[in-house]
Amino acid sequence: MKANPKLIIAFISVWSPSFANAGDGVLDLTQLANYANQAVPSYITKNNTTAGNPITDKGATLGRVLFHDKRLSRDNTISCSSCHDQSRAFGDSPTASTGVNGTTGRHAMRLINAPFANEVRFFWDERATTLENQTTQPVRDHVEMGFSGTSGDPAFADLVANIVQTEEQFVVAPGEPGLVMSVFTLPSFEFVFKLIKDKEFYPPQKDTTREIIQSKYQLVKQHDRVGRMADTLEYSGVGFPLQRFEPELLAEIEKFAPSQLQVNTRSDGTQEVIIAHVYIERRMIPLNIYLQEAFDAGGADPTATSPAAVQARVQIERGVAEYGNAIKDLVAANIFPGDMLWKNFGVMRHGKVVFYDYDEIEYITDCNFRKVPAPRNEEDEMSGEIWYHVGPRDVFPETFGPFLLGNPAVRSVFMKHHSDLLDASFWQGHKEKISQGHVHDVFPYEADKRFAVQRLTYSPD
Ligand code: HEC
Question: Which domains does the chain have, with CATH numbers?
Answer without folding.
Answer: 5-164 (1.10.760), 171-283 (no CATH), 287-435 (no CATH)
